[in-house]
Amino acid sequence: MAIPIESSPPPGWEREGIDGLLGLFPPGRLSEIVGPRSSGGSSLLLALIARITASGGQVAFVDGMDALDPASAAAAGADLSALLWVKCGGRLRVALSAADLLVRCPGFALVVLDLDELGPMPPSAHVRLQRAVEGGDTILIARSARHREGSPASLVLATRRLAPRWMGLRPLTRLAGLRSEISIFRARPHSLSPLGRGQGEGLKGEGWRWTLDWTL
Amino acid sequence: MTRIACLLTPSDPARPTLLRVALAHSPRVEDAGAGRVYLDASGLEGLFGDEPRLAARLRAAAAAAGVESSVGIAESRIAALAAARLGPGVLVVEPGGDAAYLAPAPLSLLDLPEATATRLSRWGLRTLGELAALPTAGLFERLGGDGVRLQRLARGEDPRPLVSWRPAPLFEESAVCEWGLETLEPVVERLRELAARVCARLGAAGLAADCFEWTCRLGDGRVHEGALTPAVPITDADSVGGLLRLALEARPPRGVVEALTFRARPVRVAPAQESLTDRSRPAPRRLTATLNRLVALVGADAIGAPALLDTHRPDAIALAPYPSPLRGEGRVRGGDRRDTRDASPTLALRRLRPPVPASVTLASGRPVAVRSGRLTGRIVAGVGPWRVSGEWWGPRPWLLDEWDVELADGTLCRLAHDGSAWRLEGIYD
Is A4 inside a domain boundary? Predict the structure, then answer.
């Protein structure tokens, strides 16, 4: 008879780790992830998509630059069959219209508007999307390289590149990953409730930082 | 005492035939998929004799319908399945003998999820008897309630009742016009009446229809047929009536109509939320309208669910229909995903489509600078080349030398050389 030796510890919820970070995005609000190239913004998006699709949620990905790599998404743990990918071919207005249509269709747990270098989006589009997503359960996240002053986003996360991680000494043998820093650039009230802090406390969460190691 | 018979065929497309055979013998039939049909064999002695005779009769009836099958009868579904699969063709497990019969059977009978099957295999378990002999408390600690359920099945204890199957109802209404209808208006009105009755029946059954068809028998013996396909499945009689009028005005019957038949093709419209604990999904009607607008906006070839193709060619992807008809039960490749709770965060690659031609300066065979339409800079670190190739046996062989490099401004990107030119494939982010 086999003697089972494995045990299944309950999954831990790391408040200070990526779980705490991903729990910040408020439903029914516009959030933003801003940061330069190779700063971990897209990796953060894929981690969020993976968690939402793993829990049975449907995700719409409006891809302004057709840059999504489904292999990376699958490697991050995303269920590709629960992901609606809309390729916009580098057309900003088309991407904004597509995002507007999707946030008005209830049932998506997450709508991502990935503008990257197309952004930042015009102020009028900011306001329109914020109005469209209000009152629903959808998390709307816009990803762009730069932040525009005056945006109505409830949560703005800034990503910063710290250092790549290489395997091997000189000569290097393989790219192992990237270390980046995610900080809360702006947080309006009600957007920090998942951590049990910041409820109605205005901008208290600003400046919180997470250091994450993204693995290739 | 419950007795269950299993009809098993290696040809799953023949399952509807088996269902009809089963329903001719028992009022309670379950469609278990994968070529399996279960039926309640309790209390059938008075009709068909003892169980061996019933089993033989079932097999003969299936053979008469053109389906090769095997039959097993036992107290539980799992034992009946084992008897049908492992037996000589017709096998009856005596009452009370399920556990003993199942003991040497392989674990694969349980249709285990891959992760559970791997885990049990690592524990050294091969047969249902070995699983049944494990301490229940320890199994619960390691596999949770699912482990206990599997162990009960391995012991031949199957408390779940049969899920009754019924043939799909026919949603069709007909009318005979004794005096013949010569103009279009009365034809439309009679068809609208039939459509209203069909829609009422659809609504009562909790169904909708994605296609409506009608047939008009004409006075000279010809038949006029028509169909309409709404954008989304509907049951609203007024909407169907309006669409029907438009369709008939566009293509009216050419002759006197003597008889009318109207039928609907029923579909089950999935609710926005399958159960209390499930996350909500977009409502089908809203989703269809949204997808149609998106198709008009970006084109039909730019929207869908991404799917990875079964090749090592970089960026080999396709767009599958969304929402996926699999609904999470079977996955396209890419479903071999990791448990997100245990996964370390993964570094994403942002693809450049198409790859951007680049000019790369080499020193001692290694790239030291890159110039392209998207990125330009000095390379401060890099690894490679990683040679990838494939499909050399086909008409489109490919070969790439890939490099992961870091530019002076900190950008991490992937370069590739296809033997003749360099290109920028993507940027890590």
Answer: no
Torsion of CA B155, B161, B163, B165, to 10 degrees: 100
Arithmetic mean of pLDDT, B131-149: 87
State whether residue A32 sits within 8 Å of chain B by CB.
no
Residue A15 C-alpha, separation from nearest chain B C-alpha, in angstroms = 13
Over residues B377-387, the pLDDT tens digits come to 999 999 989 99
Domain region containing B259:
171-267
Question: What CA–CA distance (Å, rounded) separates B174 from B184?
Answer: 18
Pick from B134, B142, B282: CB nearest A6: B142
Amino acid at A69: D
pLDDT at A203: 42
Nearest one of A164, A144, A200, A192 to A38, comparing CA atoms: A164
Residue B324 belongs to some domain of the structure: no
In a domain, B161, yes or no: no
Q: Do the chains contact at A58 and B323, CB–CB below 8 Å?
A: yes
Q: Could you tell me the two tokens for B365?
A: 């065979």
C-beta atoms surrounding B12 within 10 Å: 12
Q: Does the distance separating the beta carbons of B345 and A106 come in below 8 Å?
A: no
CB distance B4 to B21 below 8 Å = no
* Count of structural domains within chain A: 1
**Of B217, B233, B267, which marks where a domain is finished?**
B267
Name the residue in chain B with its Cα closest to that of A90: B353
What CATH number is attached to the domain comprising A62? Answer: 3.40.50.300
CB contact under 8 A, B344 and A215: yes
**Residue B220 belongs to a domain:** yes
Residue B312 near chain A (CB below 8 Å): no
Which of left, alpha, beta for A198 (phi over 0: left; psi -120 to 50: alpha)? left
For residue A43, give the nearest of B304, B351, B429 by CB distance: B429
Cβ of residue A203 closer than 8 Å to a chain B Cβ: no
Over the stretch B308-331, which tens digit does the pLDDT of each residue have? 998 888 899 999 888 765 444 333
Check if the beta carbon of residue A110 is closer than 8 Å to that of residue B286. Answer: no
Q: Can you give the residue range of the structural domain that contains A37? A: 24-215
Q: Could you tell me if B345 and A213 are in contact, meaning their C-beta atoms sit under 8 angstroms apart? A: yes
- Number of neighbours of residue A153 by Cβ within 10 angstroms: 25
Query: Rounded mean pLDDT of chain B?
Result: 85
On whether both B146 and B175 belong to a single domain, the answer is: no
- CB proximity list for B118: less than 8 A, separation 6 or greater: none
Mutate to test the interface with B, among A51, A83, A175, A179 (most CBs of B within 10 A): A175
What pLDDT digit, counting tens, does each position of B200-221 carry? Answer: 988 888 888 888 999 999 988 8
Is residue B1 within 8 Å of residue B145, measured between CB atoms?
Answer: no
Round to whole Å and give the CA distance between B276 and B394.
51
Cβ of B345 within 8 Å of Cβ of A215? The answer is: yes
Q: Cβ separation of A58 and B331 shorter than 8 Å?
A: no
- Report d(CA B226, CA B81) in Å as an integer: 46
For B106, which DSSP code? B
Q: What does the pLDDT look like over A35-61, one tens digit per residue?
A: 999 999 999 999 999 999 988 889 999
Residues B110 and B218 grouped into a single domain: no
Q: Tell me the pLDDT of chain A averaged across its residues.
A: 83
Query: In a 10 Å sphere around its CB, with 0-12 CB exposed, 13-18 middle and 19+ buried, how is residue B259 labelled?
Result: middle
B61 torsion bin: left (phi>0), alpha (psi -120 to 50), beta (else): alpha
Chain A interface includes B143 (CB < 8 A): yes
User: Which chain A residues are Cβ-neighbours of B122 within 8 angstroms?
Assistant: 6
